[in-house]
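Minutes, project check-in

Agenda point 3 was the complex the collaborators sent over. CS summarized: two entities, 500 residues total, and the question is how they sit relative to each other. Sequences were read into the notes so everyone works from the same version.
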Amino acid sequence: MPDLGFEVLLKGKNMARLLGGLGTAMQISMISVAISIFLGIIVGILMAWKNPISRAVTRCYLEIVRIMPQMVLLFLVYFGSTRAFGWNLSGELSAVIVFSFWGTAEMGDLVRGALDSIPAHQYESAWALGLSSGQVYRYIVLPQTVRRLIPLAINLITRMIKTTSLVLMIGVVEVLKVSQQIIEANRMSSPNAAFGVYLVVFLLYFAACWPISLLAGYLEKRWR
Amino acid sequence: MVGDMGYHFPHVFGNEAIICYLRSDSVVRWLPWIIGNIGLSAAQGILRIKASRKAGFVNWEFIMKYLPLYQKAAWLTVRIGLCGVALSVLIGLMCALVQHYRVPLLRQLTACYIELSRNTPLLIQLFFIYYGLPKLGIKTDAPSCGMAGLAFLGGGYMAEAFRSGIEAVDKAQMESAYSLGLDRWQTFFYVLLPQAVSISFPAFVANVIFLLKETSVFSAISLMDLMFTAKDLIGLYYQTVESLFLLVVFYLLILLPVSLAGTLLERRIRYAGFGV
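CS then shared the predicted structure for the full assembly.
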């Protein structure tokens, strides 16, 4: 049995460093998720609003985000803003900007979908029962929207975590960068470290995303 | 004043376009290039006003010089992307069928595979395949590694899309087919598959666009794709604006037609749905 490089992770503080790298990625994705859920609700209401101008603008925004790869957006903000405007953004900050920009559009579309999926008779029946406009939203629309929205929003979190791995390309030191450093440092003592370390990183990402996906699936089934 | 600023692109641009077009062996091969030029000339018109105010902001000579490089990179992206998508459709269809017919053992295996591929990023999968697996003696070159990674990721997503499509077909449909005397295969090919395809088509289009977008991480395994070219040029010549502009234009050229075709086909295929 040739050594597969798992023992490298037990040396010194390597495992803790790897987890720290994952922590950086998580931090970026959690901040972006918080911003994009907050802004996404506003954008989603604008999307569902039957005003041609707001519709056209939000539609354009959504299409741009849908079509451009996140990597291109990262490059545009990280390299482009420096050259065009002379800003000096750190990798972390530009990652948060890009992922919030992307997440806001996705979240907005989810909110719009949830609002649109409530049939018109729900509003009409509520009005027929004599509820005021505020009461209709408070007791009829909001509970149904939130039930449809929460599983989808949780899924957005896993997508955000997965997308955060891209920040490697703009020089943020996250889990992949740390694993590259560990592999390079131990090139002589354990040449097969690449297999073990990348397998562990793979499983770490899986361990981070899988429970969240399971929760989303469970809630979706339960609240159907 | 205007003459000595070095903006003589209209002549260069026009002649080169015509010469290249005449030399080409097939129009189709140059179609993206031609569309790119039309897009570029439109953008030139807009940016020219800007450029005349702020001399030297956009270097058009640079853009024209490195256009072929981007074109080559775009072809690589498209080729690998389409091969990966085709492979992932195959894998996805097989996994969905295994799940639907509840094949013992294989079902658990495919369930594991779907969860693994859907809950990890493509970048990590590529790193594992490209740098990790050679240590076990499984060596791959960069293009096939990219294809394998895309197929691994896409297979899980496609499997989910097809599975939900198959599940959404009403049970009464199959029972009616059986009672009409159709056998298992006929029921599958004439009743189940057409309806499942039409139901899962929107998810399928979304997955194709998603997978084509994901090809942007291939630069991490040193494939000369669009991202790699842009990063290279930024590093070499510090022409950031021009490199990024070409990058955006080429990704639009690849993804916009796919997105538009998807929307049109979705509208068309919706008629095929029955009772949904």
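Noted in discussion: Residues 122 and 140 of chain A are 7 Å apart (CA to CA).
Follow-up: revisit at the next meeting once the mutant set is ready.
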